[in-house]
Amino acid sequence: MDPCPGRPPLPRHAGRVVTAKRPDHVHHVDLTVVPTSLGMWTSWSPFALPQAWPFCWWVAVVVDHYSRRAMGLAVFSKQPTSVQVRTFLGRL
After folding, report:
1. pLDDT for 22-31, tens place per residue?
2. Does residue 3 come out as left (phi exceeding 0), alpha (psi in the -120 to 50 range) or beta?
């Protein structure tokens, strides 16, 4: 059943399609900012708070596409460097 009747369908191959065929074949990595109770309450300068502890945590999560299982989690107090992210991924 079409979820949006009346709207033209999306092209079948609208770019690169990645399909996981077995566990540990394809992983998704997400790096996001999670505010603390002190929060990042405003986003404009000069009142913006730094995206670092104690105002937020940086969280990295790796999910297996096939099983949708969370493979790993890392919490950083400030924006991680590429070396820190690569070290985290290497531990998986």
Report:
1. 988 888 999 9
2. alpha
Phi, then psi, of 35 in degrees rounded to 5: -70, 150
Interval 36-65: pLDDT, tens? 776 666 666 776 766 777 778 899 999 999
42 contact partners, CB below 8 Å, separation of at least 6: 48, 49
**Rounded to whole angstroms, how far apart are CA atoms 40 and 27?**
30
pTM attached to this predicted model = 0.66
Q: Using H for helix, E for strand and C for coil, what is the string for the chain?
A: CCCCCCCCCCCCCCCCCCCCCCCCCCEEEEEEEEECCCCCCCCCCCCCCCCECCCEEEEEEEEECCCCCEEEEEEECECCCHHHHHHHHHHC
Alpha carbons 11 and 2: distance in angstroms, whole number: 14
